[in-house]
Amino acid sequence: MTAQPPLRVVQWTTGNVARATVQAILRRTDLELVGCYAWSPDKVGQDVATLCRLPETCGVTATDDVDALLALRPDCVVYTPLRFDVPTVERILRSGANVVTTAEFLTGHSIAGAREALAAAAEAGGASLFGSGMNPGYAQLLAAVATGICSEVRHVRSVESVDVSSFAGDSNMDGLGWGRPLDDAGHADDIRAAVAVFEDGVHVLADCLGVDLDRVDCRVDVSAAVRDLDLVGRPIAAGTVAGMDVRFLGVAGGREVIELHQRWVMSGELDPPMPAEHGYKIEIDGSPQVSLTLGLLPDQPLETLTVEDMHGIGMTITGMPVVHAIPHVVAARPGLVSYADIPTPAARM
After folding, report:
1. pLDDT of 1 higher than 60
2. What is the CB-side half-sphere exposure of residue 344 using CA atoms within 13 A?
3. What are 54-90's pLDDT values in tens digits?
4. How far apart, in whole angstroms, are the C-alpha atoms of residue 296 and residue 329?
5. What span, in angstroms and rounded, lies between the C-alpha atoms of 318 and 98?
6. Strand blocks (E) in the chain
7. What is the end-to-end Cα distance of the chain in Å, rounded?
8. CA triplet 238, 243, 247: central angle to 5 degrees?
9. Which CATH number does the domain 7-131+316-337 belong to among 1.10.357.10, 3.40.50.300, 1.20.1250.20, 3.40.50.720?
10. Distance (Å, whole) CA 8 – CA 65
11. In this predicted model, what pLDDT tens digit does every residue of 242-262 receive, in sequence order?
12. Distances (CA, A) of 279 to 159, 262, 335
């Protein structure tokens, strides 16, 4: 057998998730980092590993020259900005580069008009587009796998239940309306818009299970802080929103068949109570009934754990699903692909 050359990879942006993805790419012998895009002029010309706060340089420098990056003919672009820019991704796909992304995209259902445009760009370039993250994304793969021992499945529920107070100041929390009055008009609609990508997660799981959905509904419940919360970057006053349950519900044949339930809290003291279970749980109503719990622990002594370490774990579980999927996405058919279309990704030992 002849050894295959490593896949050529470009990292797109150098933010929090990129620190995890770049480190993982550099560790894998089947991947080669050949370029990096940075939109900020002060990052141009700097070593990518330095920008991602890694201990050793890697010899690849960042650029804002898109044409130069695409001229490298990468096999795959790891696209990890906070927001998903449709024209940019279209351009990458039309160049023939596959794209894996953590940026608010799994199927495109939640981005008005984007699904068709991105599919056309992918087909034109003979490339594939794949989106994931921990949740939505990998959690739906776990749910699909959990049904593999069932002879019948009636309903699948995926629950994320976490205290997010350590991430209170993060910009991805801005659209959720923490600290708004409990009865603030339009808040539920704003929350749905801010996390619309979870609708994509419902579609991913439906595709894995072979379900044709009629629609995806969303229900939002909120809870108030019982005392003032002095959180870094986002203080929350007593009596205002400090907890939320967000449920995206896939409906088929007139009944709910899939539920993605997110419980995010900024405190353990809320009214009404919203206890966080600090992990992920999958519940299958089927034959047999199945319950799967995913817990996460740091790879270090707990007494040494810092807020930055906790944040790093969050970025790792967000970025690793797309890095491990790269070989499968490169080999996939052109177009929009999800976990329903590729083999189950796994880490390299």
Report:
1. no
2. 10
3. 999 999 999 999 999 999 999 999 999 999 999 999 9
4. 27
5. 19
6. 7-12, 31-37, 62-63, 76-79, 98-101, 128-131, 152-163, 215-225, 241-252, 255-265, 270-271, 279-287, 290-294, 335-337
7. 21
8. 155
9. 3.40.50.720
10. 18
11. 999 999 999 999 999 999 999
12. 8, 11, 33
Q: What is the phi/psi pair of residue 295, to 5°?
A: -110, 150
3-state secondary structure of 161: strand
Residue 186 CA to residue 227 CA, distance in Å, equals: 24
Residue 324, C-beta contacts closer than 8 angstroms, at least 6 positions apart: 345, 346, 347, 348
C-alpha to C-alpha distances, 5 to 48, 196, 198, 246, nearest whole angstrom: 22, 38, 36, 44
Beta bridge partners of 291: 283
DSSP code of residue 107: S
Annotated domain spans of the chain? 7-131+316-337, 135-295
Cis peptide before 136 (omega within 30 of 0): yes
Compute CA distances 115 → 36, 123, 342, whole Å: 26, 12, 19
Q: Cα(65)–Cα(62) distance, rounded to whole angstroms?
A: 9
Structure tokens at 39: 């939109």
Residue 305: count other Cβ atoms within 10 Å of its Cβ. Answer: 13
One-letter amino acid of 230? D
Dihedral Cα 81, 84, 90, 92, nearest 10 deg:
10
Cβ atoms of 59 and 47 within 8 Å: the answer is yes
- Give phi and psi for 228, each to the nearest 5: -60, 135
